[in-house]
Amino acid sequence: MHVALTGATGFLGLRLLRRLLDTHAWVTVLAHAGSGDALHRITRSLELMGAPSAFLARLPERLRVVETDLALPRLGLSARAFRELADGLGAIWHSAGSIHLEGDLPELRRTNVEGTRHVLELAAAGRAEPVVRHVSTAFVAGARRTGVAYEDELDDGAGFENAYEQSKYEAELLVHAWSREHGRPALVLRPSILVTDVPSHPELPSHPLQVVERILRDARRATVAAPPTATSSPNGAPDGSSRGAHGLPGPGARPRVRTVGHPHGRLNLLPVEHAADVMVRLSELPSSHGVDTYHVVHDRDVPVPTVVALLERLVPLSIDLVDAKPEDPSALETLIDFYPGITAYLTHRRRFDDTRVRTLLGPAAVCAPVGLDGLWSGLAPRSGALPRPPDTPPAPAPTPCA
Hints:
The structure is a single chain. The protein has helices spanning 11-20, 38-48, 53-57, 59-62, 79-87, 105-125, 163-182, 209-222, 272-283, 304-314, 331-336, 340-343, 355-361, 372-377, and strands at 3-6, 27-32, 63-68, 91-94, 131-135, 148-149, 186-191, 193-195, 229-232, 238-243, 256-260, 266-267, 269-271, 291-296, 302-303, 318-322, 351-352. By secondary structure, the protein is α/β, with parallel strands linked by helices. It has a domain at 3-196 and 268-300 and 350-367: Rossmann fold (3-Layer(aba) Sandwich), CATH 3.40.50. The strands form six sheets. Strands 3-2-1-4-5-7-14 form a seven-stranded parallel beta sheet, sandwiched between helices. It has a two-stranded parallel ribbon with strand order 6-17. The chain has a two-stranded parallel ribbon with strand order 8-13. This is Thioester reductase (TE) domain-containing protein. Residues 222-262, 383-402 are annotated as: Disordered. It comes from Streptomyces lividans TK24. InterPro entries: FAR_NAD-bd, NAD(P)-bd_dom_sf.
């Protein structure tokens, strides 16, 4: 079976590609037209991730790159090129998409919904009737913050925390409609928040949590005054913080931020390398001839206080979890609250059920715990960025999953 993959240069896509090349002689990469030399970027990224030199040397003969535009009908290809591409495929992995949590719905629909629609058109046009493997997200469960989210559920009754979740929900609806219309199987894979302990590098795709880091850092930068001036506590002693003009925190300050969150909340974070392996294993199982949906998640959630501690390492902030929005928000708190679909995750206590995956894959579905030091290892700033706090212990060596 010959496979095509969208999103091969992305955070998950690179790991999927690496795993697919374990079992396929060659893979067609559907790369975004005009985004640069995809083969070079893939090769360089896999090199930085530790791929053997012999494996890298063979990539030019094992990868066929087709430049496409997922936002356009026929992927932006001519009718002939589109037909030839479709007829040569036995499976299509759709991993491309936007994870901009702060994006607006029309923008995200162009990428996540219309992109899925056009990939499904490619699958429908193929003479060999290629199977569809669609990467969604466990967060199509939406704004339901407690209880259990099951794999056979797909509804919008609870609403969504942000436009990203809604766009991925709408994309899943398209997959179900396509499967019914054509009587064809499809595999829907719902990963949770993907992470890695592989050290960051400017030439590697961004870590998903860097989206949150960037928003917090930009908000802090926008509300920090310069130059700093010393202030005193009521008894005349320095208060330990640095304040600039107009009473705003100075550049060296660690301002305190109150945000709504639950001290017993939890988030599901899963190493991306393990997610790619589980996804490929699931794709090798017999299909039900309908839409098979699986939660690709960790069996142990990460406590919200651990996530808060990570954010405090990444951005010079002190974060307090509170029960309700402050009545007297600071400028920084107001700006951060402008993206409520991000901080809302600090209130989550729900669980994603993955009984089917663990039953089908057994020990291969189990992964080592995700901890603060492992998370830091994949996000730690390099030289020139803000230094790690001096009391932070060194991160341990990466721990492999089962």
